[in-house]
Amino acid sequence: MHPDTGEILLQPVRMAGYVPYNGIVCAGCVVASTTVSQLFFNWLNQSHNAAINYCNRNAATETKTEDIVKSYSAAITAALGVSLGLSIIIQKRFPKNAAQLMTGIAFFSSAAASSSNCYIMRSPELASGWPLTDSNGAVVANGEKSKQAAKVGIMETVLSRVYLTASVFIMPALVANIPIIAALPATMSGPITGFVTIISFGIGLPAALAASPQYGVIEVKDLEPAFQGLKDKNGEPIVTLCYNRGL
Asked: Which of 187, 215, 219 is nearest to 228 (CA)?
């Protein structure tokens, strides 16, 4: 259930559904050894990431359909651009080792693409800002929204995507290039790498989310004038406020 709207999220866009629905796609990103396959799996991966980012956003302010379409287009363009650029460079400069090196593309392209995807899909929130609450969950400053809190929270979310990408793609790439694994035919090495990818995803996702919890805290002194001088019910100055940065 989305904490802002009360909407029941579809299974593929729930964080609990991230590994079951996206794990195979991530495995495809790792084992893909051609430019076409890299682009295909990156498109699938980043399309799902865009849906995850949008559905788990701070939804205190409505996002226009036009902004969603623009953000998705920009996010996918960035993702495929990074993947295509790295694929071309590797195949031209290292043609003999391209197949092995392509497994490493998944991390670098996904790290750049996932972080930019997250930032672009959630950038409309920077313009509107987020409402803030006290430690008891009560909205403060008559519902005034903070762009500064949105900026901090979204950057935290972007970093969590980098953490997640590292945990998902680095270990499978290393396993895929172990001599005994690399010497196996693709019908055997592929499933092994895919299995390691899904296990890494399952471990890395909760760790990445724990590194940047859904509800963050920001000091009042770092916020806009509207939030200065607030006091709690006992008349004591409020030093920190809370925000829902989404997942």
From this structure: 219
Q: Which of 54, 49, 57 is nearest to 22 (CA)?
A: 49
**Amino acid identity, position 216:** G
- What are the sequence ranges of the domains in the chain? 11-128+145-213
Rounded to an integer, what distance in angstroms lies between the CA atom of residue 11 and that of residue 28?
Answer: 21
Residue type, 36: V
Helix or strand holding residue 206 (H, E): helix 186-211
Q: pLDDT per residue over 58-78, tens digit each?
A: 887 777 788 778 878 877 887
Secondary structure class of 204 (helix, strand, coil): helix
Rg of the chain (C-alpha set): 21
Instruction: Give me the residue label for tokens 């724990």.
Output: 210
The answer to whether the pTM exceeds 0.90 is no
What's the CA gap between 190 and 169, in Å, rounded?
Answer: 14
For the stretch 83-98, pLDDT in tens is 788 778 887 888 777 7
Between CA 182 and CA 176 the distance in angstroms is 6
Q: What is the pLDDT of residues 184-198, one digit of tens each?
A: 887 888 888 888 888
* CA 45 – CA 48 distance, rounded (Å): 5
